[in-house]
Design a protein that fits this description.
Structural class: mainly beta
Mean pLDDT: 87
Helix content: under 10%
Shape: globular
């Protein structure tokens, strides 16, 4: 999967792209992106843009039913650059990795 976000306008701005993940997803940050593990499998996520991006894992909540919320991670990519700009996020399945049996840990940078 490849998603291209285009931000129009002029001048220098701080831009953020957020990927909400399902509850229980595991995220391991790596240079240029992250490795994400869900029930659907393990994926390498890369993010490319016109300037270096800061990638982080942030806590969020997800609706689990009427009146119920559970923790869920969000992969956030932030950068400061001149507009207009295009930011490309690519998701590639990691071969040999399985969903339910793969690691489900969430790591944050120190």
């Amino acid at each position: 999967l490849q998603v291209e976000d285009e931000v129009t306008g002029a001048g220098r701005h701080r831009v953020a792209v957020r990927w909400d993940l399902p509850p229980g997803a595991g995220v391991r940050l790596q240079p240029g992106g992250a490795a994400v593990t869900t029930a659907a499998g393990q994926f390498a996520v890369t993010i490319a843009g016109p300037a270096p991006a800061e990638v982080a894992v942030e806590p969020a909540v997800s609706g689990a039913g009427l009146g119920a919320a559970v923790p869920a991670p969000v992969v956030t990519c932030r950068l400061e650059a001149d507009l207009p700009l295009r930011l490309t996020t690519s998701w590639h399945r990691i071969s040999g990795a399985s969903g339910p049996g793969a690691s489900q840990t969430q790591e944050r940078p120190s």
